[in-house]
Amino acid sequence: MKLVITEPLGISEAQAEALKKEYLPQEIEMIYYNTPPKDEAEKGARAKDAELVMLANMPFKENVLQELTSLKMLSVAFTGIDHVGMDYCRAHNILVSNCSGYANEAVSELAIGLAIGLYRKILSADRAVREGKTRTGLLGIELSGKKFGVVGGGAIGKKTMALARAFGCDVYYYNRHKTQIEGAAYVSLDELMRISDIISLHVPLTADTKGLIGREEIGKMKKTAILINTARGAVVDSKALADALHEKRIAGAGIDVFEGEPPIAGDHPLLHAPNVILAPHVGFATQEAMEKRAVIAFRNVAAYLSGKPQNVM
């Protein structure tokens, strides 16, 4: 049986071999491609004869999947699976497992970091030093005492709430299914948008969440409020957000995700909006998270081979 890792996982080949030795049967043949494929054709060519395929966040849609006639299982080293052709997988009995949980700390810490970056004007402060200026105009804001609103009550949302509490914030949250979360008050999305000083998004991209934060929702925000998105780009109407920033109807935004994977188009509205910190989808990208997700991805393959699949999507 053959396992192909079709793109880099953020670990070395030696680490991948060690994980194979620890979790998989000796007779499994493994090929690890530690460079990204050049194009769609190469994606399919790399995994053509494999029964088992491991990938991270590169798109793996029907046009690629239909070439993989031996494929039985996809171990997706990522939390979201909107980049995978799930309808095709279900129709052709291809089991898909994800690596939910590997980046809880990484993403939640970045969300807080973006908020601090905006509140303390870190980009402007760096620029001031390099341009020989002083701290004039760089009066910052503290997190302590602010109303921190989280959209999404999953693992990353909960971790973000815990960090916000540690900074002395009053924490509020909205989730489609009302749950009890210690130290946080449940409110409607409408109320959360109105009362929060900081709004951090932590929901998956689904039919229900696409465009969840649109022009109407952004219009309810305080003039002094900031929006943080480390979830999925399409959850937010980027044009509506950029308009609000240009018109000073909100104070700022920290964005790590876009409608597609970076690089983004030069005419993307947020590239030209004021008081916004942009990052090229780095929320999950820490050394620790890469190691955690690789372990989960290999364990997913081992569980499938044992007849007890886990993290099934």
Automatic annotation (TrEMBL):
PROSITE patterns attached to this UniProt entry: D_2_HYDROXYACID_DH_3
UniProt xrefs under InterPro entries: D-iso_2-hydroxyacid_DH_PdxB, D-isomer_2_OHA_DH_cat_dom, D-isomer_DH_CS, D-isomer_DH_NAD-bd, NAD(P)-bd_dom_sf
Every D-isomer specific 2-hydroxyacid dehydrogenase catalytic domain range: 5-310
Residue stretches making up the D-isomer specific 2-hydroxyacid dehydrogenase NAD-binding domain: 112-283
Keyword annotations of the record: NAD, Oxidoreductase
PANTHER family with a match to the protein in the record: D-ISOMER SPECIFIC 2-HYDROXYACID DEHYDROGENASE CATALYTIC DOMAIN-CONTAINING PROTEIN-RELATED (PTHR43761:SF1), D-ISOMER SPECIFIC 2-HYDROXYACID DEHYDROGENASE FAMILY PROTEIN (AFU_ORTHOLOGUE AFUA_1G13630) (PTHR43761)
Family: Belongs to the D-isomer specific 2-hydroxyacid dehydrogenase family.
Protein name: NAD(P)-dependent oxidoreductase
Organism expressing this protein natively: Selenomonas sputigena
